[in-house]
User: What shape does this take?
Amino acid sequence: MSSMAVQNLYRKKRTSSWFYFLLPSIAIMLVFFIYPILLTFYYSFTNLALTGEAAKELKFTGFDNYVRMFQDPTVRISIWNTLVFLIGSAVIGQQVLGFLIALLMKHKNKHFRRVIGTIVLAGWVTPEIVCALCLYSFFGDEGTLNAILAFFGIPVVAWLYTVPMITIILANIWHGTAFSMLVFQAALDDVPAEIEEAAVVDGASRWQILTRIILPLIKGTLTTNMMLVTLQTLGVFGLIYAMTGGGPGTSTTTLPIFMYNQAFVNYQLGYGTAISLLLLLLGIILSLFYIRAMKE
Assistant: This one.
């Protein structure tokens, strides 16, 4: 057997051995990811329900759920609420606040960074439902915020009823800012100090150093963090449900809340799965947008 044939046989054997090592991962992906998505896609074209006549016999209904979905005014309200919540708490809130905290901690000593980092991390490591109950107690009619206002003689406000969207945005910012802070802190620590020192020697201001040196050097991190925070915020459910339940009315009803109400409150699982695919489509569109921005 020639040396070339031996090399080809070795390469083939090595490739097949790698494939065997990947089989468990492929099986897990098929069972816990691909199969549920395909099943959800199928159920969205059916009348699947938990109660009533539809629960007795599963029927294929075509695009009825999707026609109903795009004719439902609550769906449009939910999409708008989702975008407002997403931009307010993720794109603006967590991204900007996380970067500012990381920037302010950049040149501080390790003890200061440890104390501030622990305080910010407290909100992130707190379970979502516990975080929701804490913020509900803070913004409640007899909560901490109104107690502070009453102490200074300021009229109390029913925050969860007058400005419910602002309350859940602030709650999600408090809960998730630490993730952005950690990501940006690692990125800022990798910015060479020599470049900043050279800019200072050349007479650059702090604003010029930030906008012309630091931000361009970490723009990949900015985009990556934005994508991760956006996708995480897109699926927030427990925080909103525990604080407002999607109300008052539909003022804080996002797509996850509306999907849950249709599937498990109204027992219309077919319609609920159609809404879940709309949420999935929105996540895919935003992901493609961020991936393109990262390439550019």
